[in-house]
Amino acid sequence: MKTENQKAWFFVLPVLILVAFNALIPMMTVVNYSVQETFGDNVFFWQGLDWFQQILRSDRFHAALGRQFMFTFLILIIEIPLGIAIALSMPRKGFWVPVCLVLMALPMLIPWNVVGAMWNIFTLPDIGLLGYFLNHVLGINYDMTQDPVAAWVTIVTMDVWHWTSLVVLLAYAGLVSIPDAYYQAAKIDGASNWSVFRFIQLPKMKTVLTIAILLRFMDSFNIYTEPFVLTGGGPGNSTTLLSIDLVKIALGQFDLGPAAAMSLIYFAITLLVSWLFYTVMTKDDQT
Amino acid sequence: MAKITLSTLRHSYYPNPKSDSEYALKEVDLDWTDGGAYALLGPSGCGKSTLLNIISGLLVPSEGKILFDGKDVTHLPPDQRNIAQVFQFPVIYDTMTVYDNLAFPLRNRGRDEDTVRERVMAIAEMLEVTDMLNTRAAGLSPDNKQKISMGRGLVREDVNVVMFDEPLTVIDPHLKWKLRSKLKELHQRVKATMIYVTHDQTEALTFADQVVVMQLGEVVQIGTPVELFERPAHTFVGHFIGSPGMNILPCTLQNSVAMFGDQPVALEGPIHGSANGTTEIGVRPEFVSLSTAGLPATVTKVSDVGRHIVVECNAQGTKINAVIEGTPPAKGDAVHLQFRQDQTRLYVDGWLATTAQEAAA
């Protein structure tokens, strides 16, 4: 047996310090707020776990959490299959490869609030290109400031437009790494297109798809800017996702204690789901 | 099982090939007899993989036809040709067990599970992988993976031909010979036609009954390993097969006598054809001996390769190797070289141009 060299920890130290300053220390202040009540002037009263109880029992939180899961579920169920389908139909070599890749990357390069503003204008019922077309050409009554369904359709469509590319690029990277011999062998073995997808392409894409789903889960679960700019959480509370609700509590009502408790619960849920998913997906690789 | 005929095949990867050099296959006419063990031997880029892919149906040739038992299959897709191919890198279906991997080609063709089980068990036993049948194929070592991909080819009854595209490239050296003898054994058991593509002469010569040597998109010689060694039809074959390869000496002809510089060299027999073009003498190092008389040369290098000694000499600026046994001369020694007459041949523009004199021997 080789003795293990513990010196490697020394090299991780700079990162640890960095993480401490940009994540751990700010988070400790949140922990600090979450167990106390303050009325300003740096006067704090010990509150224990009251805020956590209050948040976990609040209908408002349950509703926002439900909407959040619904949103994340919808965009994943659309973006992952759509991304795979687009990646499968992209050319593997030749002139069109860079063209496709650049076109695919474009939406991801646009800042979040710009995406929100773009879609806001795009869907305005009387002057927006899409809004005008739906209302005045197709005669569909579409106004996301009035209709919760229209608002949901719009934010989900916007997210699909913005982030499907990420899934496409990752899935495509997985696809191009498959050697030709696999396809040739499958042809000789008489495999159908579905079998090729099921037994060659999907297994080879598994790692990148795991990453894609994780990234899309975390990003969509924490989404704030785009729906905030697009709908502001309305109409009513219909598109008030967790982070929008959190900001309302923290900065709108200035309830720092409950907001801090909610942040920690929010963080714990994100972490737990990511961990569960990753553990399940990578389980058979170890055996 | 079938006899495979390649008729005036030409293939180019360019859409409109203009010159001969744009053809990956220049013109190939070949017959593969049913049940034969063939090797396709040649350096990288000589067109052997192209030829293989044309036979398997992964490529459609630019010109010419492929016949299986006289039936034209040129435009049939691979799965309808009933052929099998083993690739350079083992192709296995990672998510399946070894059993499912072997069963895959049969299930795709709609065989019932009883037949599948029977065939898979038989093949697994032949390949000695029965104990791995229920493990996931992803975790196997490269040589076992390659065995499984061979198995997927052999599992179908009556495959017309099994083709191997440099199948031992990723296998550890100590396992190579094992897998190679397994292949040979499999050939004797299943009696299918096998074509083995390689650039390694040892692999080709040990596996095959007939070796097809290719160079620059052309077949230069077809023969048994012994024929290729003893009577190379082209200087390329002489050079490519054998270690060290055949000695090639530039020469001139004076009244049908080959002259190396000012030294006449006795050939195996009369020269046929017009003999216009570049003339060269070819003689294998095994048939060059050191003597007290003959072609004067200087020893430039002596290497002991174990079983024998390779003496590298310089005669009039040309390098000549001699394989000898016994005490070697020292480097720098002046020696005389003798060529065994019945193994000394003349090549014109690379092609053999002398006829052996059987009566003389």
Automatic annotation (TrEMBL), chain A:
Membrane disposition: Multi-pass membrane protein
Entry-linked CDD domains: TM_PBP2
Official protein name in the record: Carbohydrate ABC transporter membrane protein 1, CUT1 family
Localization per record: Cell membrane
GO CC, alphabetical: plasma membrane
Positions of the ABC transmembrane type-1 domain: 65-277
Upper taxonomic lineage: Bacteria, Pseudomonadati, Pseudomonadota, Alphaproteobacteria, Rhodobacterales
Transmembrane segment boundaries: 9-31, 69-88, 95-112, 118-138, 150-173, 256-278
InterPro entries on file: MetI-like, MetI-like_sf, Sugar_ABC_transporter
Main location: membrane
Keyword Transmembrane: yes
GO biological process, one term: transmembrane transport
PANTHER family: GLUCOSE IMPORT SYSTEM PERMEASE PROTEIN GLCT (PTHR43759:SF1), TREHALOSE TRANSPORT SYSTEM PERMEASE PROTEIN SUGA (PTHR43759)
Assigned protein family: Belongs to the binding-protein-dependent transport system permease family.
Key words, A-Z: Membrane, Transmembrane, Transmembrane helix, Transport
Alphabetical list of Pfam families matching this protein: BPD_transp_1
UniProtKB/TrEMBL annotation, chain B:
Ranges for domain ABC transporter: 4-241
GO cellular component, one term: ATP-binding cassette (ABC) transporter complex, substrate-binding subunit-containing
PROSITE patterns: ABC_TRANSPORTER_2 (PS50893)
Domain of life: Bacteria
InterPro entries to which the protein is assigned, alphabetical: AAA+_ATPase, ABC_transporter-like_ATP-bd, ABC_transpr_FbpC, ABC_transpr_MalK/UgpC-like, Mo/tungstate-bd_C_term_dom, NA-bd_OB-fold, P-loop_NTPase, Transp-assoc_OB_typ2
Pfam family, one: ABC_tran
UniProt GO MF annotations: ABC-type ferric iron transporter activity; ATP binding; ATP hydrolysis activity
Keywords of this entry: ATP-binding, Cell membrane, Membrane, Nucleotide-binding, Transport
Recorded family membership: Belongs to the ABC transporter superfamily.
Alphabetized PANTHER family for the sequence: ABC TRANSPORTER ATP-BINDING PROTEIN (PTHR43875:SF14), MALTODEXTRIN IMPORT ATP-BINDING PROTEIN MSMX (PTHR43875)
Name listed for the protein in its UniProt record: Carbohydrate ABC transporter ATP-binding protein, CUT1 family
Species of provenance: Epibacterium ulvae
